[in-house]
Amino acid sequence: MGVTEILRAAAAPYGLTVDDGLAAKLEIYARELAAWNEKLNLTAIRDEQGVAVKHFLDCLLVTQCADFSSGTLIDVGTGAGFPGLVLAAAFPGLSVTLLDSTGKKLAAVESIAKEMGVSNVAFIHARAEEAGRLPAYRERFDFVTARAVAALPVLLEYALPFARTGGAFFAMKGAAAGEELTAAANALAVLHGEVVKEYDFTLPGGDERTVFCIKKISQISPKYPRPSAQLTKKPL
User: Fold this and answer.
1) Is residue 34 part of a domain?
2) CATH number, domain with residue 198
3) Based on the number of CB atoms within 10 Å of its own CB, is 184 exposed (0-12), middle (13-18) or buried (19 or more)?
4) Is residue 32 part of a domain?
5) C-alpha dihedral sign at 136, 142, 147, 151
6) For the chain, how many structural domains are there in total?
7) How confident is residue 221, by pLDDT bands cut at 50, 70 and 90?
8) 96: closest CA among 126, 115, 124?
9) C-alpha torsion 42→82→55→160, nearest 10
10) Which of 61, 128, 147, 229 would bridge 158 by S-S if both were Cys, CB 3.0 to 4.6 A apart?
11) Confidence (pTM)
């Protein structure tokens, strides 16, 4: 089976369908990802089963948490484009911004997006804690996503400054999600975030996943996000 067939079979038990248009884009994504991996380490997951399930399905499961058919989204620390580019491909009416501090990775993802024919994306080469202080990006987005970027107390300080008041941050976490949430209690209070939904999934193969939907209750103090060294050494 190819990536599309694997993905469709894996997605069905979750009530997700992958239409032909999205399938065609994701086939190109998988092909381009493999080509770029020959010269740049975009992802350690390279087999078709892993790409279909641990990348594409994992990203698409976020769509069970909210309606992403329109609005604005920023994907913080997008890496190889997960989940931001997958969501952009699935929802042409969603305006997606992909942010990463590694220029080579971002250039690769931009090239992949062009090959896919996905045009509803913009790219920011910057550190999250710096971009989050800029008026052009601070508190400007309906949705914020982040996957495999940092522990939740740190991740909240990276991500929540981008969300508008009333917007939502979707933190995609693994098996240690519960422990991370406990550790993030103070960060949530300081950064005016509230966990309003929690979605727990088990991917085919047994990997546990949790998506925390965190609502931005009110504006954050301008002193956040702090500089990187301070932010990571002394999490809130």
Assistant:
1) no
2) 3.40.50.150
3) buried
4) no
5) positive
6) 1
7) very high
8) 124
9) 130
10) 128
11) 0.96
